[in-house]
From TrEMBL, chain A:
The lineage of its organism: Bacteria, Bacillati, Actinomycetota, Actinomycetes, Micromonosporales. Residues 1-23 form the signal peptide. It comes from the Bacteria. InterPro entries: Bact_solute-bd_prot1 (IPR050490), SBP (IPR006059). Keywords: Signal. This is Extracellular solute-binding protein.
UniProtKB/TrEMBL annotation, chain B:
It is a multi-pass membrane protein. Belongs to the binding-protein-dependent transport system permease family. The lineage of its organism: Bacteria, Bacillati, Actinomycetota, Actinomycetes, Micromonosporales. The keyword Lyase does not apply. It comes from Paractinoplanes bogorensis. It comes from the Bacteria. Pfam families: BPD_transp_1. This is Carbohydrate ABC transporter permease. Keywords: Cell membrane, Membrane, Transmembrane, Transmembrane helix, Transport. Coiled coil: none annotated. Residues 87-278 form the ABC transmembrane type-1 domain. The chain crosses the membrane at residues 26-48, 87-109, 121-143, 155-178, 199-224, 259-278.
Length: 437, 292
């Protein structure tokens, strides 16, 4: 029985409201010791208890308790969806937590900072040295200007971990066809040709979600430099969608489909199914993010696997992870800063790294797990080249769906690269016009 | 007419051997079985994956049978979200909403259906329109109102909201039932000297009990399954209901398929048990109208 929802509710609550008290007033101050004497710290995040972040943060909570006897930590694990949908409403109410994990980006942390719902962490970050622990591409996502655009302005959040897109490969299948890890794009295509000759589709791709656009973006980045990334992501200069970067990305992506590197039916595949098809050993290669790493370490039992960075690229899709933010309504700001400080400590960072996460400020020598060392060494390589290029869907609201539709068109052949580029240029340019740039 | 036509042949050939071997019956049986399988396939897949270890899922995919039963997913999920508490929250809100919703519907429908209040058509149109409004439209007004009265992040807010939502539908439905209410009964009550109040509780409510049972069951299950408004209004974990708790497993980029299945399984079980228990009420209520 399908039924639609109703609207009488407003009337009922209006009646209730007429019975009720007047709203309580409240002022907000903002100095650094504010909330230092608070007796509770309410902390929210949405990472699973067995994920790298969950493990490291649990430890951080323990350390926090040890350092602050008498303070009760009220930790609540939230759903991503709940925070995503409601953050604005929650942070505007008395139910706001004292510190929480939140998504980085213009549409999320940027929007909240613009609405004055987040505490400015700039002074704390420089006083406690958080800013020095983060390299400049990681810092991009922590700073938002008055319009809520990332890249400059005040610091509103601190990330503990990073993420980046790399290439996962099935070592057993590479061995079977006598293939080496490629170091250039040409070698990479040669490897994939070899698989195609042996009737194996080389790439596991989820065309219905983020993976396809990240491959296209990786290809575009192979022709790009930091200035282009700044133009595309931070609107420094106008981006030509038919310029050498995106044109190359779209054309090469189309070639990969035509040559059979990417299966035509992958347009309808979800990211989760892509991951499972790789863990089942159905595809030798998968290009996707470091967020799979911990899961693969625990779950792939039937074959040996490894990773390498997208061959030949200096720039890779990736960014800081989600941020710790302190809501403006937090009643224990000083305690929240102390907690962030603990999460940046070397031992917590090492714990993150040893459990399949990518710590932002870890000493590679403190990572004892051999498998995770590979993950972190790759990240340190990107980091030393300042090579995080963010994600292709960041520049405009709703751009994710535009890019999904565009790459799906390329995969199933309903659009030519030129048509696809025109299609994705339009919302991008409209957003620029909205921003007055 | 149709009833006798149906009944007659059934009486004449109960043990006919030709009928029993009729191949069409097997075809129909097979078709029904296939339909049944299609209907329960999603549930089966959930059940299979709920007792599969993540490694087996990674190796065999969603359709493979688990080599051994793995209960950790269910147990871990139960402990992780403190599921007993969520069950209680869901149960108590659904129950209170169902009771209050039915009570409110009865009072409204008595006035509109039997009391023949002036302009009742417009009341009904209003309730119908209210039924058609999407919840998303209501979120912001409700949010501000509940914040004003300090009911944001409280089960009471959910109870009030859904009592009104369900009662709007209940009023609409029950009013049309009461408009057909036998006038003889009402007249008899009047002759016996029963007042309006007495007539309602001693005559109208007992006679329409099957319909009220259906309303109660539907209100309970609908409220149990509500996701969007509870997601918005129940901020603290201690206040959350079952569907909201299931959302905890939805990650940013990853999903934990086996644990999600485990949570799905224990999430729908209570509603299914409730449905089985009240199944007879439903069928009785639906056929109740046909008798008269």
């Amino acid at each position: 029985m399908i039924r639609s929802r109703t609207g009488l509710v407003a009337g009922a609550l209006l009646m209730a409201a007429s019975l009720a008290l007047t709203a309580c007033g409240g002022g907000s101050g903002g100095d650094e010791t504010e909330g230092a004497d608070a007796k509770t710290l309410t902390l929210w995040h949405y990472e699973g208890p067995t994920s790298a972040m969950g493990i490291a943060w649990n430890k951080a909570i323990e350390e926090f308790k040890a350092a602050h006897p008498g303070v009760e930590v009220k930790f609540e694990e939230k759903g991503f969806e709940q925070i995503q949908q409601n953050a604005q409403m929650i942070l505007n109410s008395d139910s706001a937590p004292d510190i929480m994990e939140y998504n980085k980006g213009n549409a999320t942390a940027g929007l909240l900072s613009k609405q004055g719902l987040l505490t400015d962490l700039t002074d704390e970050a420089s006083k406690r040295g958080w800013d020095k622990a983060l390299n400049s591409s990681l810092q991009t996502t922590t700073k938002y200007d008055d319009d809520g655009i990332m890249g400059s302005g005040k610091t509103y959040g601190i990330p503990n971990y990073a993420e980046y897109v790399e290439v996962y490969y099935n070592k057993d299948l590479f061995k079977k066809y006598n293939l080496q890890v490629p170091t250039t794009l040409d070698e990479f295509t040669a490897v994939m040709d070899k698989f195609v000759q042996n009737k194996v589709t080389p790439l596991a791709v989820g065309g219905a979600e983020y993976p396809a656009q990240q491959i296209l973006y990786s290809l575009a980045l192979s022709q790009a430099d930091r200035a282009w990334v700044d133009d595309y992501q931070l609107y420094k200069n106008k981006v030509d969608f038919k310029g050498p970067q995106l044109k190359y990305g779209a054309d090469t992506f189309k070639q990969w489909v035509d040559k059979g590197y990417i299966n035509k039916n992958s347009a309808g595949i979800k990211a989760e199914d892509m991951g499972v098809s790789f863990t089942q050993g159905k595809f030798p290669i998968m290009i996707s993010g470091s967020w799979w790493y911990g899961r693969f370490s625990g779950e792939i039992k039937n074959f040996e696997w490894g990773t390498f960075l997208f061959p030949g690229n200096k720039l890779h899709p990736g960014s800081s992870g989600n941020l710790w933010v302190v809501p403006e309504k937090s009643k224990a700001k000083a305690l929240a800063y102390d907690f962030i400080d603990i999460t940046m400590k070397p031992e917590i960072q090492a714990l993150l790294g040893n459990n399949g996460g990518v710590p932002v400020a870890a000493d590679a020598s403190a990572i004892t797990d051999a498998k995770n060392k590979e993950l972190i060494e790759n990240f340190n390589k990107i980091s030393s080249e300042d090579g995080l290029a963010f994600y292709p869907d960041w520049p405009a609201p709703g751009y994710y769906d535009v890019l999904v539709a565009g790459t799906q068109g390329l995969i199933n052949g309903s659009k030519t690269p030129d048509q696809m580029l025109d299609e994705i240029a339009k919302p991008y340019d409209e957003n620029l016009a909205d921003l007055g740039k | 007419m149709t009833m006798t036509a149906n009944r007659a042949p059934a009486r004449t050939e109960p043990a006919s051997p030709i009928k029993r071997t009729n191949p069409i019956r097997f075809v129909i049986l097979a078709a029904l079985l296939a339909l049944l399988l299609i209907v329960i396939a999603p549930l089966l897949i959930i059940a299979i994956n709920a007792v599969k270890s993540p490694a087996d899922y990674a190796g065999g995919g969603p359709l493979s049978l688990p080599p051994h039963l793995y209960w950790d997913g269910i147990v871990d999920f139960w402990n992780r979200v403190n599921f007993g508490q969520k069950l209680w929250n869901s149960f108590i809100t659904s129950l209170v909403v169902a009771v209050l919703g039915v009570a409110l519907s009865i009072l409204n429908a008595y006035a509109l259906g039997i009391g023949k209040v002036k302009g009742r058509i417009w009341f009904l149109v209003f309730f119908l329109v209210a039924n058609l409004l999407p919840q998303e439209v209501l979120v912001y007004p409700l949010y501000f109102l509940s914040k004003e009265v300090h009911l944001y992040d409280s089960l009471i807010a959910i109870v009030i909201i859904f009592t009104v939502i369900q009662a709007a539908f209940g009023t609409y439905l029950l009013t049309s039932v009461y408009q057909e209410f036998p006038a003889e009964l009402l007249d008899a009550a009047d002759v016996d000297g029963a007042g309006k109040w007495r007539t309602l509780w001693s005559v109208v409510v007992p006679v329409s009990r099957p319909t009220l049972g259906v309303l109660f069951t539907f209100f309970f299950i609908w409220t149990w399954n509500e996701f969007f408004l509870p997601l918005v209004f129940l901020v603290s974990n201690d206040n959350q209901t079952v569907p909201v708790a299931l959302g905890v497993l939805q990650g940013d980029r990853l999903m934990d398929a086996t644990m999600t299945s485990a949570s799905g399984l224990i999430g729908i079980l209570p509603a299914m048990i409730f449905f089985l228990v009240f199944q007879r009420t439903l069928t009785r209520g639906i056929t109740a109208g046909a008798i008269k």
